[in-house]
Specification:
Layout lengths: L2 H14 L2 H10 L7 H21 L2 H24 L4
Helix pairs in contact: 1-4, 2-4, 3-4
């Protein structure tokens, strides 16, 4: 199997994993159970992976980590947005 295909499948799986959390957060307006420290570390890691992908010019790494970074930031924004709405 072509390794780029494996990379694309891996990127889709790991990136789409954020979507259920976003959907649940929007529906319930509750994200107080997520760990902000974990998401800060995740955002830093995704930013570094994005930088690395840009440096080596690998579009799979760039797109996957840019999408993961955007989705993680959305989750953190929703968490703080809904914090005082109880």
């Amino acid at each position: 199997m072509e390794w780029k295909i494996i990379g694309i499948i891996a990127a889709i799986c790991t990136t789409s994993g954020f979507i259920p959390q976003i959907i649940r957060g929007i529906r319930t307006k509750r994200l107080d159970d997520i760990s902000p420290i974990m998401y800060v570390l995740l955002i830093v890691g995704l930013s570094l992976w994005l930088s690395y992908g840009i440096h080596i010019g690998d579009m799979i790494i760039i797109v996957a980590n840019a999408a993961g970074l955007a989705l993680s930031v959305i989750i953190v924004i929703l968490r703080f947005k809904y914090m005082g709405q109880r």
